[in-house]
Amino acid sequence: LLRLLEAQLQEQRREYEEVVEALKNQVDAVQEELEKQQQAFLQTLQLSPEALAEFVLKQEITRLTNENLDLKELLEKMEKNEKKLKKQLKICMKKVQDFEASQATILAERRQQEQNMQVAVQRKEKEFQGMLGYYKEDEPLLIRNLIT
Protein backbone atom coordinates (compact mmCIF):
# COMPACT_ATOMS: atom_id res chain seq x y z
CA LEU A 1 0.00 0.00 0.00
CA LEU A 2 2.88 2.32 0.88
CA ARG A 3 4.56 1.63 -2.49
CA LEU A 4 1.30 2.33 -4.31
CA LEU A 5 0.91 5.65 -2.51
CA GLU A 6 4.55 6.47 -3.23
CA ALA A 7 4.07 5.72 -6.92
CA GLN A 8 0.94 7.88 -7.04
CA LEU A 9 2.78 10.72 -5.30
CA GLN A 10 5.65 10.52 -7.76
CA GLU A 11 3.20 10.49 -10.68
CA GLN A 12 1.42 13.55 -9.32
CA ARG A 13 4.76 15.32 -8.77
CA ARG A 14 5.79 14.55 -12.36
CA GLU A 15 2.48 15.87 -13.70
CA TYR A 16 2.82 18.98 -11.54
CA GLU A 17 6.35 19.60 -12.84
CA GLU A 18 5.12 19.24 -16.43
CA VAL A 19 2.34 21.74 -15.81
CA VAL A 20 4.78 24.17 -14.12
CA GLU A 21 7.18 23.85 -17.07
CA ALA A 22 4.39 24.50 -19.59
CA LEU A 23 3.25 27.55 -17.62
CA LYS A 24 6.84 28.85 -17.46
CA ASN A 25 7.08 28.53 -21.24
CA GLN A 26 3.82 30.43 -21.65
CA VAL A 27 5.05 33.19 -19.30
CA ASP A 28 8.30 33.47 -21.29
CA ALA A 29 6.37 33.73 -24.56
CA VAL A 30 4.07 36.41 -23.12
CA GLN A 31 7.07 38.35 -21.78
CA GLU A 32 8.75 38.26 -25.20
CA GLU A 33 5.56 39.48 -26.87
CA LEU A 34 5.25 42.24 -24.28
CA GLU A 35 8.82 43.33 -24.89
CA LYS A 36 8.19 43.46 -28.65
CA GLN A 37 5.07 45.55 -28.11
CA GLN A 38 6.95 47.90 -25.76
CA GLN A 39 9.72 48.38 -28.31
CA ALA A 40 7.14 49.06 -31.04
CA PHE A 41 5.39 51.50 -28.74
CA LEU A 42 8.64 53.32 -27.93
CA GLN A 43 9.45 53.51 -31.63
CA THR A 44 6.02 54.97 -32.37
CA LEU A 45 6.52 57.61 -29.67
CA GLN A 46 9.75 58.69 -31.34
CA LEU A 47 8.07 59.05 -34.74
CA SER A 48 6.95 62.36 -36.15
CA PRO A 49 3.18 62.98 -36.29
CA GLU A 50 3.07 62.17 -40.02
CA ALA A 51 5.05 58.95 -39.58
CA LEU A 52 2.91 58.04 -36.57
CA ALA A 53 -0.27 58.52 -38.60
CA GLU A 54 1.17 56.40 -41.41
CA PHE A 55 2.17 53.68 -38.92
CA VAL A 56 -1.32 53.64 -37.39
CA LEU A 57 -2.90 53.48 -40.87
CA LYS A 58 -0.64 50.56 -41.84
CA GLN A 59 -1.58 48.74 -38.64
CA GLU A 60 -5.27 49.32 -39.30
CA ILE A 61 -4.94 48.22 -42.94
CA THR A 62 -3.18 45.04 -41.82
CA ARG A 63 -5.87 44.33 -39.23
CA LEU A 64 -8.67 44.92 -41.74
CA THR A 65 -6.97 42.80 -44.38
CA ASN A 66 -6.63 39.90 -41.95
CA GLU A 67 -10.25 40.30 -40.88
CA ASN A 68 -11.33 40.40 -44.52
CA LEU A 69 -9.43 37.18 -45.27
CA ASP A 70 -11.04 35.50 -42.28
CA LEU A 71 -14.47 36.60 -43.47
CA LYS A 72 -13.78 35.34 -47.02
CA GLU A 73 -12.77 31.96 -45.62
CA LEU A 74 -15.94 31.85 -43.52
CA LEU A 75 -18.02 32.81 -46.58
CA GLU A 76 -16.47 30.01 -48.63
CA LYS A 77 -17.22 27.49 -45.89
CA MET A 78 -20.80 28.68 -45.67
CA GLU A 79 -21.23 28.50 -49.46
CA LYS A 80 -19.93 24.92 -49.47
CA ASN A 81 -22.30 24.09 -46.64
CA GLU A 82 -25.17 25.71 -48.54
CA LYS A 83 -24.43 23.61 -51.64
CA LYS A 84 -24.26 20.45 -49.53
CA LEU A 85 -27.57 21.27 -47.85
CA LYS A 86 -29.22 22.03 -51.21
CA LYS A 87 -28.10 18.63 -52.52
CA GLN A 88 -29.51 16.95 -49.43
CA LEU A 89 -32.76 18.87 -49.84
CA LYS A 90 -33.06 17.76 -53.48
CA ILE A 91 -32.47 14.15 -52.46
CA CYS A 92 -35.06 14.40 -49.70
CA MET A 93 -37.59 16.05 -52.01
CA LYS A 94 -37.05 13.28 -54.57
CA LYS A 95 -37.58 10.65 -51.88
CA VAL A 96 -40.77 12.39 -50.72
CA GLN A 97 -42.08 12.58 -54.29
CA ASP A 98 -41.27 8.91 -54.86
CA PHE A 99 -42.96 8.00 -51.58
CA GLU A 100 -46.06 10.06 -52.44
CA ALA A 101 -46.20 8.48 -55.90
CA SER A 102 -45.90 4.99 -54.44
CA GLN A 103 -48.62 5.80 -51.88
CA ALA A 104 -50.89 7.11 -54.66
CA THR A 105 -50.22 3.94 -56.68
CA ILE A 106 -50.97 1.71 -53.69
CA LEU A 107 -54.14 3.68 -52.95
CA ALA A 108 -55.27 3.38 -56.59
CA GLU A 109 -54.57 -0.37 -56.54
CA ARG A 110 -56.59 -0.77 -53.34
CA ARG A 111 -59.52 1.14 -54.82
CA GLN A 112 -59.33 -1.00 -57.95
CA GLN A 113 -59.27 -4.18 -55.83
CA GLU A 114 -62.25 -2.95 -53.79
CA GLN A 115 -64.17 -2.18 -56.96
CA ASN A 116 -63.28 -5.59 -58.40
CA MET A 117 -64.45 -7.27 -55.18
CA GLN A 118 -67.73 -5.34 -55.25
CA VAL A 119 -68.28 -6.31 -58.88
CA ALA A 120 -67.47 -9.93 -58.08
CA VAL A 121 -69.87 -9.93 -55.15
CA GLN A 122 -72.60 -8.36 -57.24
CA ARG A 123 -72.12 -10.95 -59.97
CA LYS A 124 -72.25 -13.81 -57.50
CA GLU A 125 -75.42 -12.46 -55.99
CA LYS A 126 -76.99 -12.14 -59.41
CA GLU A 127 -75.94 -15.56 -60.64
CA PHE A 128 -76.96 -17.59 -57.59
CA GLN A 129 -80.43 -17.68 -56.08
CA GLY A 130 -79.59 -19.99 -53.19
CA MET A 131 -76.92 -22.13 -51.63
CA LEU A 132 -77.37 -25.21 -53.80
CA GLY A 133 -77.38 -25.59 -57.52
CA TYR A 134 -79.45 -28.37 -59.10
CA TYR A 135 -81.35 -29.32 -62.19
CA LYS A 136 -85.11 -28.92 -62.21
CA GLU A 137 -85.69 -32.62 -63.00
CA ASP A 138 -83.66 -33.65 -59.87
CA GLU A 139 -85.91 -31.63 -57.53
CA PRO A 140 -88.10 -34.56 -56.24
CA LEU A 141 -85.00 -36.64 -55.48
CA LEU A 142 -83.36 -33.70 -53.67
CA ILE A 143 -86.46 -33.09 -51.55
CA ARG A 144 -86.69 -36.78 -50.57
CA ASN A 145 -82.99 -36.83 -49.57
CA LEU A 146 -83.39 -33.67 -47.52
CA ILE A 147 -86.38 -35.08 -45.64
CA THR A 148 -84.65 -38.37 -44.83
> Rounded to an integer, what's the Rg over CA atoms?
46 Å
Instruction: Count every beta strand, where a strand is a DSSP E run of 2 or more residues.
Output: 0
Model regions low in confidence, pLDDT < 50 over at least 5 residues: none
Largest beta-sheet characterization:
none
Instruction: Indicate the mean pLDDT.
Output: 86
Q: DSSP strand (E) fraction?
A: under 5%
Q: Which structural class is indicated by helix and strand composition?
A: mainly alpha
Shape field: elongated
SSE pattern, N- to C-terminal: HHH
How far is the first residue's CA from the last residue's CA? Answer: 103 Å
Protein name: MYO5B protein
Keywords: Coiled coil
Coiled coil: 2-95
Provide a descriptive summary of the structure in words.
This protein has 148 residues and is mostly helical. The chain has a domain at 1-46. The chain is 90% helix and 0% strand. It has 3 helices and no strands. The protein has helices at residues 2-46, 49-127, 139-147. The radius of gyration is 46 Å and the shape is elongated. The N and C termini lie far apart (103 Å).
